[in-house]
Amino acid sequence: MGFPEVIASASQALANTLGLEVQYLPAEGDAVSFRAAFKSTMDVVDGETGAPVDLRSPRILVRHDAIGKTPELEDRFTLRGKTYFAHSVEEDSHGSSIVHLRLEQGQ
Question: Which of 48, 52, 60, 98 has an alpha carbon within 20 to 30 A of 18's alpha carbon?
């Protein structure tokens, strides 16, 4: 087993153990349920003053094999009873993407 396979296996084990249930709603195609690591909104603060300097959107780590493709902008994800859309997708070289989420209006 090569390094990429080890990373993919570890990512899948982590998501299956600690991840949240997610419903993937692609712009085209059928919905897919899978488990994913989720990071909620986070404020980045200045270490000296404690003042907020950045607000990072919620994001999930999506394994491409879990949904059968690479996620795309405007795809929808439902988790914890709320629906989000992908406003940024950062694909890595190990078959996963970090998807930055925005809450759909009215939620």
Answer: 52
**Cβ neighbours for 78, distance < 8 A, ≥ 6 positions apart:** 22, 23, 25, 84
Domain at 3-103, CATH class: mainly beta
17-50 residue pLDDT tens: 456 899 999 988 899 999 988 777 656 667 788 7
Model confidence pLDDT, tens digit, residues 79-101: 989 999 999 999 988 889 999 99
Instruction: Round to whole Å and give the CA distance between 52 and 71.
Output: 30
Closest CA to 6 of 99, 67, 98, 95: 95
Q: CA-to-CA distance for 51 and 7, rounded, in angstroms?
A: 36
